[in-house]
Structures are given as C-alpha cells and as structure tokens.
Amino acid sequence: MSVVIVLGAEGFLGRHLVHHVAADPSGPHRVVGVDRHARGGGGSYAVDLRDDAAVGHLLRTERPDVVVNLAGVVEGTDDELSEINVELPGRLMRMMASWPETRDARLLLLGSAAEYGECDVAQDECAPLRPASAYGRSKLRQYERFRAVADAGGQWVALARPFNIVGPGMPRHLALASFAEQIAAAGGNERIRTGNLSAVRDFLDVEDVVTALWHVVRRGRSGEVYNVSSGVGHSMRALVEMLVQLSGRELTIDENTSASAGVPVSIGSSEKLRRETGWAPRIPIATSLRRLLGQG
Fold this sequence. Notes:
alpha/beta; Rossmann fold; 7-stranded parallel beta sheet; 39% helix; globular
C-alpha cells in the first residue's frame, strides 16, 4: 500500500484530490491529509506548514511514497505570499532530498497560470513567464527554485500549472462561485452584480484537474512542468449568462464595466500533459456550472 500525503487537504482542490486518490482503482493508497485547519483523526493531521519541525516529523513518521503540495495563498503581503508559495516548497524539496525516509518519494508542486500573465493564444510550457500579479510572481519564484532542484537531479519532483478551476466547493471569493451564490439567493426579476466580465479564461472542472494531477504523479516525468488546461477560452460574460440560463431564472446582469478585468486573456495548451500521461478532460463546462449551482 502506498502512502500519499496531501498538503492543503482542506482546501478546494485538496478535498477533491484526497477523495480521488482514495478511490483510485490502481491502489490501495493510504491518503494522509494535512492542513492547519484539519480536525485530526481518520488519517488527517493538523499541522502548521510553516513549522519545519512539525512537517519534518510528519514526513519521517509517515514515510510517504508521494507528497502533493496544494498549500498556497492567493492574496496577502509579499511576505505572506513568499512564506507559503515560495519558502515552503523550497524547504520541502530540501527536506525530502536529505532523508532516507523520503528520498525516493515523488513530490508534486502546484504552480499557476498566473506565472504566464496574458496568454492570448493557448500557451505551452515554453512560453515566456511574465506574471502580472504579486501572486503570479510568488509562483514564478517557486518555479525558479523547482528548476534549480530539478536540474540538479537526484529527486523526483514535477510541477503542475492549472489554469482556472470550477466546481462544487469553490471558495466564495472566486468570481464564478460568487455569481452562483447570488443567483441561488435571488428571487425573480432581480439583478446580480458583477465586475468587468470582458476577460477570457480557460476553465476546467475540478474533477478533471485532480485527475490530471494524479496522472502527473503516476505517469509524468521528473523535472517537467505540465499545464493543466482545456485549451479553450470562455469570456466571463458568457459564463455568467450560462449560469443564469441554467438556473432557469429571469435575472439581469449588472456589470461594472469600469472595473479592472485583470489579465485580458489566459488560455493554456495541455498537449504535453495529454501526450505524456494520456490524460484528457471529460467534463463539459455546462456540466461544471450545473454542479456549481448544485444541480448535479
């Protein structure tokens, strides 16, 4: 039985990955969920991932075959972003490479499409990295540390870069989750308020994303970066209109067109992931939006 540690297991992506790995027919796998908000028991640990001693004790006790680091912060000060998005992955790579209990384990790090900045055509992993946000810059610094370790060899480590993710359990601060919540709370002939909806984004269902991450762990190559994306761009306006249509309600979209839309276009190519691991997305965007609305 393999031991799989998921760091950030109580987050949106982490909860889905824990369930996916536990149900994987190639198992059995014992999944160890780690999160500072974990309740403990049932194979989960409440650990402050900034505490090297606690993380080191966990790794040396559990002796994992796989570690997937999904811990991260999207907003905060530069110090907060650096501590979790840069320093934590760096320490993980150093610790796991230095101990016999973890030296042969596979480590998957989570990057972000934000590392690319604007992608007006489907960008592959060789595209220039021009992040436009503090979050994207922190993920770029993680990539630079990953690259140094990967180029040195001796440890299995890969990095996955998901684009936008949609599905049940999305954090309420994310745009589509906020819109779905407004729609659910609205009566007839009401308005939902949005920011600027002109941006074009590449969305994948969360189940397709966690399947892709597990494909990278099982079939990917050490030292490689893999985009996790659909290769299809959807305008945020079209997605909100689809949410309203799927809800069956007569609602008006009150768009603040003067607000910033962020990076105008972000679309990724997942050809490398598909070619090397056999992964392919299965869930249509309409199905994902129905699930977000609680309709499936």
